[in-house]
Amino acid sequence: MRMYDLILKKKEGAALSKEEIQWMINAFTTGEIPDYQMSAMLMAICFQGMNHDETLALTLAMRDSGDVLDLSGIKGVKVDKHSTGGVGDKTSLILTPIIAALGVPVAKMSGRGLGHTGGTIDKLECFEGFSTSISEEAFLKQVSEVGVAIAGQTANLAPADKKLYALRDVTATVAEKSLIASSIMSKKLASGSDAIVLDVKTGNGAFMQTVEKAEELARIMVAIGNSAGKKTYAVITDMSQPLGNTVGNIVEVQEAIEALNGKGPKDLMDVVYALGYLMLKAAGVAEDENEARTRMEKVIASGKALDKFADFVEAQGGRKEQVYHPQLLAKAAITETITAPEDGYVEALNAMAIGTACMSLGGGRETKESQIDLTAGIRLKKKIGDSVKKGECLAELYGNDAAKCNDAKELVQNAFLFSKEPLDAPETVLKYITA
């Protein structure tokens, strides 16, 4: 085969065969195909698209480019969860101990954040001593004994995707649905779980700005997962404002602990319960949404979910007492308050602006080399639909650099829009995709 011929074929709108895609991914991973030819192919895909068979073949080829974890030694149905990313999304910290406490094992590979806040790995490292660099043997042993383990992605997990994504990032070829879907699903399939639940965000703080585009991406990924033999579900959730009341790393960990103590905000818990329902459904533990929610609420009320989280943190080297006493987590030196300029109601709260403000405080990464300030963050006191009085606190900012705090204050202030008329808070869970 010649890469030139495959580029020409895709440029003219023809579908690539499974064998052609496998050859292309293998040759690119080993360095036989140069970056400039793969860049041309990626651009051709952006213009011509890929059908289901092509997208599935691309996903499986990337999955098979490296290690595929074998979780068969762990009893029960292993369910993984993935979010397409949003502002204030700390659901994994809350959801995984709840599901594990209900007897469903969770073996999760997570990454670090690049953007407005840290990823799940960064948030877990807020606990002193916590490590996600654990061996595969220790990872499997912990899932069997504790019920949950979260590790950093290994260097050899879907290496073709890492190499492809680096190229997409600098050639303006990131935002193509088949490329997005295959990137996400290749890593999920390589992680070895029996079932996958996807949280696909939509709104101004999400990659997919409209519900229609989010649903299209969700259906592509669900079809890939099911075709690959994994029971796969998705839920479309709103990201027109930050999820929950915190954006940052330590502040999000503290809010997750509050949620496990039964004090989570409604919008955040609605997403947790929706994802939890699909995870329990995929595991064959609950078919009915009301039954699933009741079981999750009970495991929170009993304290078992919080205890499971503490055991998980301790198993990976973290300080267990920081789970039960989150005030022991590190604190920022500076606190700034944003106040309402007028009476009225919060009409809009720009999620991306809040995310940008958090990053400007030091709570996120602009490049892979950036160092995160885990104490930097934002705590929202008002959200869409809430009434406000002039001078009332809208948000608190936490940081360690006065200049950065001043820049963030302006961003947060401008993220709020007000109305004289009352309005309802937006629904957070928009749609389930189960087939």
TrEMBL record:
GO MF term set: pyrimidine-nucleoside phosphorylase activity
Function: Catalyzes phosphorolysis of the pyrimidine nucleosides uridine, thymidine and 2'-deoxyuridine with the formation of the corresponding pyrimidine base and ribose-1-phosphate.
InterPro entries referenced in this protein's UniProt entry, alphabetically: Glycosyl_Trfase_fam3, Glycosyl_Trfase_fam3_N_dom, Glycosyl_Trfase_fam3_N_dom_sf, Nuc_phospho_transferase, PYNP-like_C_sf, PYNP_C, Pyrmidine_PPas_bac/euk, Pyrmidine_PPase_CS
Recorded catalytic activity of this chain's protein: 2'-deoxyuridine + phosphate = 2-deoxy-alpha-D-ribose 1-phosphate + uracil; uridine + phosphate = alpha-D-ribose 1-phosphate + uracil; thymidine + phosphate = 2-deoxy-alpha-D-ribose 1-phosphate + thymine
Enzyme class, broadest EC rank: transferase
Superkingdom per UniProt: Bacteria
Record-annotated Pyrimidine nucleoside phosphorylase C-terminal domain positions: 345-419
Protein name, entry field: Pyrimidine-nucleoside phosphorylase
EC number: 2.4.2.2
